[in-house]
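Good morning C.,

I know you're traveling, so I'll keep this short. The sequence:
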Amino acid sequence: MPANSSYEDNELLTRIAEGDAAIYPYLHDTYYNSLVYFSLSIIQNLQQAEDIAIDSLVKLWQIPTRFESTGKLRGYLFTLVRNASLNYLKHLQVREKTEQALLLDTPRLETLVVESDIMHLVYQEVALLPESYRQIVELLYIEDLSSAEAADQLGISMDNLRQRKGRALKELKSALLRKGLSEHIFSMLFF
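The tokens, ready to paste straight into the viewer:
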């Protein structure tokens, strides 16, 4: 049936309940413009209002629902659009608050970026350590195990663990200093 055909109420409601995709063009032609206008009156953004209207019609098609009347169908569609429009506005408010907080806290943001870069460098260098050293550093500093737990997990003595830990940290420190990390920052991370 062409999109501009009209349907009897019962036929329309039955086809919606059955999830008949052929009814979608008719629903689009009948409700789309009203739904866009309604959403636009709430959010003041035409592109987003169009997306919300389409999403609401698609949702009706994806989740077939039985309606008692075309009035209930219309009410359902407008409720979907209203809720989606309000959710969009909430999302905008959250995004604006986050952006404002980041702008106000620029020094903190810069600190986080630097910390992230340092930790990325540390993890890269830890991964390059010989296996026995890497395991020690990961267990003690990443997984935060006690020395006794790390020694037990590796099946080595505490003396052996201390020796490997000292060698691992010496090698890691040397590699990080070559990459430009200061001795002060290294000490803050590992001591």
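Safe travels,
E.
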